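Protocol step 6 of 9: fold each sequence in the batch and record its structure tokens directly after the sequence line. For illustration, a two-sequence batch is reproduced in full.

Sequence one:
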Amino acid sequence: MARQSERIGRSGEYLVASVISLFSDTVTVMPHGSKADILFEIDGNVYKCQVKTQSQIEIHRNNWRFDLRRGSHSKDRKYNKGDIDVYALVALEPQKIFFIKETTKSQITVDDELLRATNSHDNFKNLIKEL
């Protein structure tokens, strides 16, 4: 049986895949342990997406904190340049996704108000335009 954290992560991956599938005919959820969680193609370009899922807000700060490193069971926790094109930051309770392009940061914090006000579909469309 999978650990609870794996279930939470997998549910975020399927939520992200469902949003991406509105814009791409080719969306693949990768097996556990792959560098990228989702591969998708738009306009002939293949993108690698890493999904980071949180089930709880940081109540005392009223924000969502996402660790952008690889899992704690990985030997090398950093992603190399080119490993990831897109991060999808998922907050499970409001069912919101905040898409950002690849970054060298190891952690990112998103204000709850901003996250809840974000339209995940528009956020994804705008990110793809940037890429």
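Sequence two, same batch, same settings:
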Amino acid sequence: MIFQMMRFLTLLILTFLSLSCFAQQWHQVDTHTFIIAPHKSIAQLQANQAVITGTDCAAIINVHGDFTVLEQTINQIKKRLSVPVCYLISTGSSHDEILGIALLQHAFPAAKWIAPDYVKENIRVYQSAYRQKIDDYSLSYSVSTQRTKTLSEQETVHWQKRLHTAKQRIAYWQSLDIPLPQGKVTSVQLGQNTLEITPAVAASAGDLFIFNQKNGGLFGGASVDPIPYVTHNSISQWHNTLVSLKQRNEVVWLLPSHGKPYKRDELTKPVAFLHAIMAFGLEQQPSVPAALRTMYKNDVAEQQKLQLLFNLALKHTQSMPTGTISTYKHEHRNTLAQHE
């Protein structure tokens, strides 16, 4: 019983306290481009982020739902940048990709938030989801506080310090909310550096592609993940979007939400994956086609995820109404993380 209680408390504290073993990695692509990647052990639970700078200001592309890590990231950005942050850009519309914007907007109040139209049209849904997330944290805190009453005096003192920090964080998060994003924006100027913004029909209910003219980089979020994480059955539109993207010669490299940056030619992989899902017969066994498995043979991590994501894609496309976006995304990401 004591062991289970200590385990519960430990899980709660991991939610609120920063751990060096989960520290994010900063990678500099060039003078104006930085990629913030999560620790490989939680790469499926946190999305890649990017910071693009110009002579006048900077843009932060994408966010995730790990609030404690986001606080670390915000502090790092403030220390590293010599120009103000003027834009916050979300490439997708899943809850995991939006809720953390509350923290970023509070940290950079002058910045304009740009998101897919779907987000603006359904902003109350996101605001409600944010409140629910904080309520869940509050409930976990309350339960943990009650459970410390059965610990020894020494153990109680040890955990009370951490619970006090958790309480402060929850109170701060409760004071925030999801703001309203800007209207349609097709490009932003950072000062001798321009980002082009185009809507896309791809991974979620609403998506954006962000193209950096200066270095040929395209930031596509989950829509360009090497192995698509399918949460709806509008596969043909997503497939066509990636086929068209592969034909854009000005695009040199892409940054997905999960995984390393890759060259445009490697879009062949997600294109083939989506094609295989569309061509899969209901009578077939849910096994990854040999030709598709061969395409991913040089990446051990992708090999491990391929069958799982293939099965998830089949489950969604065969059982969900057309165009439905899964509400179980975070749950499935946790399942995927266990296979890392």
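Proceed to step 7 once all outputs are recorded. Observation for sequence two: The radius of gyration is 21 Å.
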